[in-house]
């Protein structure tokens, strides 16, 4: 299965430092197997004692939990670097690596010519472990896919959950147009889904700098492989960095706090009769670089619910003209969306809809934008079988509302379901950057049973 190619080659000769120091299980992404590419695995034992690891290839589209073969045990002598090829064959695969002791792993993709000799540049391949996987409920963005007469882009989705994983995928051009606004796929347990020439699959014959966004219910990882046949080059595209970092340039400081003399009086204390009031663990949240979003998850008593209501104060500072995400409210994930509110230029938009894909979710429009350095009271209500509404009250007590209709007659909660509230943006979408200094306060969230 696995061939040792250069047993005594040092890691330094491979060009970059070791990618992963392993004690546990990780996964190597291997693309479409053909005569034009080869994946090498470099394994280094930094200790003075022999170590070992197990290798198991998992073919694309198969269930990695149900195994017809056992892993292969490989021994690595003390201090040695071993390099292996032919990790898997017969099509796309991911390779499971389980280290027994302290080892470092690194994987490379090499383009080959028709005679089997290396051409072009060597490209490092992702090795996914518990630190680099993407947690369920988060969006991952892979940017830079292209398609023309020489170039092809493949897309890989690794379901790292041990159960079936439901994922939503979106494809967008560099101009912001949807090539595929939403596709929801079910991925087998512990599996690789490999989509060859993905832009052609979604109807793009010619294009550059496309972005694919993926969000799954459980742990996953995504990457793209771009083949440039003209220059014999293979490029691996990993998920974009979020831009969230605790590092600061010299002289940088947080935006100054803005006085808030116009904050309206909070609503009366206490919970209305017949409602279940959920108490957020913060009284306020201010958007800062180290604290972009406030995320609150709450369980409810199992049963059928009629209404969910959210109220809060919002103090704005400056407003990024690209757009502003205000809040997200849903049950577990985006597919069961109670409300998602953003500002675009002169309007507030609300998306909502349960059990439907993004393209099928309804939209409300409130033709009035928030303005800088103002205080507002926002009230959002989702009534199953009835009205959905967003109302905004400004500092002059003027109230503006937009109303629509819910797409379900009841909200069903199990003991494992969570009502999730997100306030602010994490900045992963260019059209929804963080709004520095915005302050959310007096947050009230409640639900009512049928």
Large-scale geometry: elongated
Distance between the termini: 59 Å
Query: Proportion of β residues?
Result: over 45%
Q: Find the CATH topology of the largest domain.
A: Jelly Rolls
Q: Describe the sheet with the most strands.
A: 8 strands, antiparallel
Indicate the percent of residues in helices.
under 10%
Describe this structure in words.
The protein has one helix at residues 198-201; strands at residues 3-4, 20-22, 25-30, 37-44, 51-59, 72-76, 81-85, 93-100, 103-111, 123-125, 127-128, 139-147, 151-159, 165-172, 178-187, 191-195, 207-216, 220-228, 233-237, 275-278, 284-286, 294-298, 303-315, 324-331, 336-344, 347-354, 362-366, 375-383, 387-393, 399-405, 411-413, 419-423, 439-449. The strands form 6 sheets. Strands 20, 21, 23, 28, 29, 30, 31 and 33 form an 8-stranded antiparallel sheet that branches. Strands 1, 2, 4, 7, 9 and 10 form a 6-stranded antiparallel sheet that branches. Strands 22-32-24-25-26-27 form a 6-stranded antiparallel sheet, with no helix packed on it. The protein has 450 residues and is mainly beta. It has 3 domains: 3-128, Hypothetical Protein Tm1070, Chain: A (Sandwich), CATH 2.60.290; 139-237, TM1070-like (Hypothetical Protein Tm1070, Chain: A, Sandwich), CATH 2.60.290; 275-449, Jelly Rolls (Sandwich). It has 1 helix and 33 strands. The radius of gyration is 25 Å and the shape is elongated. A hairpin with a 5-residue loop joins β14 and β15. The model is unreliable at 5-19 and 261-268 (pLDDT under 50). Helix content is 1%, strand content 49%.
């Amino acid at each position: 299965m696995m061939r040792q190619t250069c047993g005594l080659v040092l890691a330094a000769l491979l060009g970059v430092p070791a990618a992963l120091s392993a004690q546990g299980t990780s996964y190597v992404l291997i693309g479409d197997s053909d005569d034009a590419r080869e994946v090498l695995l470099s394994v280094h034992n930094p200790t003075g004692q022999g170590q070992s690891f197990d290798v198991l290839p998992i073919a694309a589209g198969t269930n990695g939990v149900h195994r017809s073969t056992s892993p292969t045990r490989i021994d690595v002598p003390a201090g040695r670097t071993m390099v292996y090829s032919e990790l898997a064959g017969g099509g796309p695969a991911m390779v499971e690596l389980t280290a027994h002791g302290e080892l470092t792993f690194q994987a490379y993709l090499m383009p080959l010519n028709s005679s089997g000799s290396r051409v072009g540049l060597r490209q490092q391949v992702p090795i996914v472990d518990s630190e680099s996987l993407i947690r369920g409920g988060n969006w991952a963005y892979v940017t830079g896919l292209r398609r023309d007469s020489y170039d092809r882009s493949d897309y890989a989705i690794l379901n790292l959950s041990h159960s079936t994983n439901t994922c939503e995928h979106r494809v967008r051009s560099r101009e912001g147009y949807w090539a595929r606004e939403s596709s929801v796929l079910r991925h087998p347990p512990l599996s690789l889904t490999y989509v060859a020439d993905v832009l052609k699959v979604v109807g793009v014959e010619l294009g550059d700098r496309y972005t694919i966004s993926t969000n799954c219910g459980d742990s996953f990882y995504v990457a793209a492989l771009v083949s440039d046949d003209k220059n014999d080059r293979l490029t691996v595209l990993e998920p974009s960095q979020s831009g969230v970092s605790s590092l600061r340039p010299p002289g940088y400081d947080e935006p100054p706090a803005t006085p808030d003399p116009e904050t309206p009086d909070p609503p009366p204390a206490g919970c209305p009769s017949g409602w279940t009031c959920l108490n957020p663990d913060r009284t306020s949240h201010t958007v800062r670089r180290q604290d972009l979003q406030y995320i609150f998850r709450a369980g409810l008593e199992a049963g059928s619910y009629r209404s969910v209501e959210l109220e809060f104060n919002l103090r704005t500072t400056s407003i990024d003209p690209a757009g502003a995400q205000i809040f997200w409210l849903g049950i577990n994930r985006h597919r069961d969306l109670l409300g998602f509110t953003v500002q675009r230029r002169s309007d507030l938009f609300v998306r909502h809809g349960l059990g439907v894909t993004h393209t099928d979710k309804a939209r409300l429009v409130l033709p009035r934008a928030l303005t800088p350095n103002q205080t507002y009271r926002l009230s959002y209500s989702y009534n199953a079988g009835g009205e959905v509404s967003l109302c905004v009250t400004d500092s002059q007590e003027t109230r503006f509302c937009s109303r629509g209709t819910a797409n379900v007659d009841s909200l069903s909660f199990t003991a494992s379901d969570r009502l999730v509230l997100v306030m602010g943006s994490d900045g992963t979408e260019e059209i929804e950057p963080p709004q520095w200094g915005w302050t959310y306060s007096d947050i009230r969230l409640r639900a009512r049973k049928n």
